[in-house]
């Protein structure tokens, strides 16, 4: 059964908060399939990641310093400069206004990817619902920014392509392309993290420290790479949505 594969933290949530979640879901008309175990691993560890990030930034904010920045501040300043530089290259003018969303997306995905390296924990991104939710958020965000930057009419004209004569052909192609993007983002992140988690877990159960450590290092690299790719593709989509043609 599904609850038998739940991790220790999920079991604690189900023991102490299970009734509360079951009552809430039932009240809104979506009772859980297993009322005794409504919490799933992915949502528990996603909540844990959010809590870690909130605590980390609250801790960092209290210690911000212009004269003597600490290592943690310098680390996140480096991340900010990296994200801002990538955004400038992909979006060009006005990219700074999108950096908060892009930086939050990168850090959130990175922490969710990396938490699975800790024994007894699991990456939420290895469950399709999490990458799918992120992908839909990106889809809605870049279209909304496109509407704001160019206006509804001008933005929709982009779907017709550069030549009016190709309107009938280009509109279906553009629609399929845009609606395929959330699927592509979801599958790429989910498949890579799922494979990395399973490979690492398999070698941990079969061998001693040295070999699993190598695969855990590879898992960390994949976690960083997939967070970067997800953010980079978001930048590319956003750059295409807000680009001004002269």
What does the model show?
The chain is an all-alpha fold and 246 residues long. The chain has 2 domains: 39 residues, no CATH class; 203 residues. The longest helix has 40 residues. It is globular, with a radius of gyration of 21 Å. The model has no long low-confidence stretch (mean pLDDT 89).
* Mean pLDDT, all residues: 89
What is the total number of structural domains? 2
Biggest beta-sheet profile: none
- Low-pLDDT residue intervals, each spanning 5 or more residues: none
Count of DSSP strands? 0
Instruction: Estimate what percentage of residues fall within beta strands.
Output: under 5%
Radius of gyration, CA atoms, in whole angstroms: 21 Å
Molecular shape: globular
Q: What distance separates the N and C termini?
A: 59 Å
The proportion of residues forming helix, as a percent range, comes to over 70%
What class do helices, strands and sheet pairing give? mainly alpha
Count of DSSP-assigned helices: 8
The H-and-E topology, N to C, reads as HHHHHHHH
Brief descriptors of the model:
246 residues; mainly alpha; globular
Summarize the SSE layout with pairings:
Elements: H1 8-27, H2 41-61, H3 71-91, H4 99-114, H5 129-150, H6 152-157, H7 167-206, H8 210-242
Helix pairs in contact: 3-4, 3-8, 4-8, 5-7, 5-8, 7-8
